[in-house]
Amino acid sequence: MNWEVILPLFGFLAFVFLIGIYASRHIQKAPDFLQEYFLGSRQLNGFILALTMVATFGSASSFVGGPGVAYNLGLGWVLLAMSQLVTGYFTLALLGKKFAIVARKINAVTLIDFLKARYQSKWVVLLSALSIVIFLFSAMAAQWVGGARLIESFTGLSYTTALFIFAASVLVYVVIGGFRAVAITDSLQGIVMFIGTLLLLIGTVVAGGGLSNIMNELVAENPNLVSPYGADRSLTPLFVSSFWILVGVGVVGLPQVSVRAMSYRDSKAMHKAMIIGTIVVGFIMLGMHLIGVFARVVVPGVEVGDKVMPLVALEVLPAWLAGIVLAAPMAAVMSTVDSLLLLVSSAVIKDVYVNYVRPTASQRQVKTLSISVTAAIGIFVFLMAVDPPDLLIWLNLFAFGGLEAAFIWPVIMGLYWKKGNAYGAFTSMFVGVGSYMLIHLNAPNLFGMHTVVVPIVLSFVGYVVASLLTQQKHPAQHQQIIQKFWGV
Q: What is the DSSP letter of 446?
């Protein structure tokens, strides 16, 4: 084994353990366990908020799968990936202040808390929790696989051993530290991702003989590698623009991103996060995907896209520095996994158990159950990841699209449209998730667009039509909701 690579990586994992221990002390002292464990007592400053959003969104697909696809398709994939530049800014601008104010007013800890108060429907809550559990399990399995493959590539350990190391690393600090541990480690991981991207980009350009030489070699191999249409011209303008809905605009509907819009300290922190988050996301996405394209010149002939990143790092950097840089994709994967793990746990405990199974449960019972369920979910995902899927990025995107189709309109319209009601929200979620799965399985990229576009349009139509048709149902309850959310 290459200990020069392994030691910096294991040092990073050890530091993450310490953060988990630090955060666990806050849980011991916190007056409200659920607020602290699932939302960090709403104390995120602008810097941590920005980096936790960046790190949560930056995942195995950004650092492993994405550069691998860029390696095969060229600069066209870089253009497509840059749609993620607006993610943090757009999410906070659209949800930001209003979402946080409402969340504090109704004491919401999770996204489903918000939906429960806004629509006052058991079926909306249960369908939301079910969507989160199903789709985030898919996303977590993909990230678990990504993390294990990274460790496998660095160390030469077997896949199963690498998977065990990764799972144990994440489980320890999430289970004992909760959301505060996740947010702090996300910030550390965001810094590692930024520095790692910079070092690897410089190393790759130097190893490729400079930008001019790299571009000339790409053109000589296939001129389409430097075109916006991709090496096989599969990236049509319609597909690229529709893909932006998936990874740019639609991200507002992702529970792991939107929950951060209710966790910041004040509006100053939010504005700071919008600027920092946009700059950091832009640099990391551009840098990592350019590395994927440039790697085609530096390490030609790589057949498995997921191996491009580890191979190019080991090729262009000294071993000890490669170990530090390779902590960046590991950080990206861990920061996404920890957030998803906590979200699934909160959906089971906070949204289903406390709301409907045992509302009178004591703080001690909820605490014990939260920690136990979080650990059990992590172990279950570990078992799912033992037999890994081949196409990491597509499995991850399947989960993203399903969640976006489920939540984007109940969240946005619930915040801004008074006529929206439980019938509209349920119809929107049912139509969005159902049509997404149906189209994804039977007619992907319908009309030449990404699969998520048609379900998002259909779910919007479902929300508006169902809400308008049922305006006369439960008028007193609807008036109470308007009073609570709009004060009129």
A: G
Contacts of 33 (CB under 8 A, 6+ apart): 27, 363, 366, 367, 370
Burial 268-302 (b: 16+ CB within 10 A, else e): ebbbbbbebbbbbbbbbbbbbbbbbbbbbbbbeeb
Closest to 333 in 3D by CA, of 31, 9, 42, 69: 9
SS3 7: helix
> SS3 of 44, please?
strand
Residue linked to tokens 């191996």: 307
**Residue with structure tokens 């530091």?**
15
d(C-alpha 376, C-alpha 372), whole Å: 6
Q: Residue 313 and residue 29: Cα distance in Å, rounded?
A: 43
- What gap in Å lies between CA 308 and CA 64, rounded to an integer? 8
Residue of 243, 328, 231 lying closest to 283 (CA atoms): 328
CB pairs under 8 A, 24+ apart, for 387-393? Answer: 388/145, 388/148, 388/149, 388/159, 389/141, 389/142, 389/145, 391/65, 392/60, 392/61, 392/64, 392/65, 392/142, 392/145, 392/146, 392/149, 392/306, 393/60, 393/61, 393/65, 393/66, 393/68, 393/69, 393/142
| 0.85 exceeded by pTM | no
Long-range interactions of 470-474: CB distance < 8 A, separation 24+:
470/421, 470/423, 470/424, 471/419, 471/421, 473/421, 473/423, 474/421
User: What is the C-alpha separation between 14 and 293, in angstroms, rounded?
Assistant: 33
Alpha helices (runs of H) in 208-230, residue ranges in sequence order:
211-221
The pLDDT tens digits for 152-201 are: 776 777 888 888 888 887 777 777 777 777 777 777 777 877 888 898 89
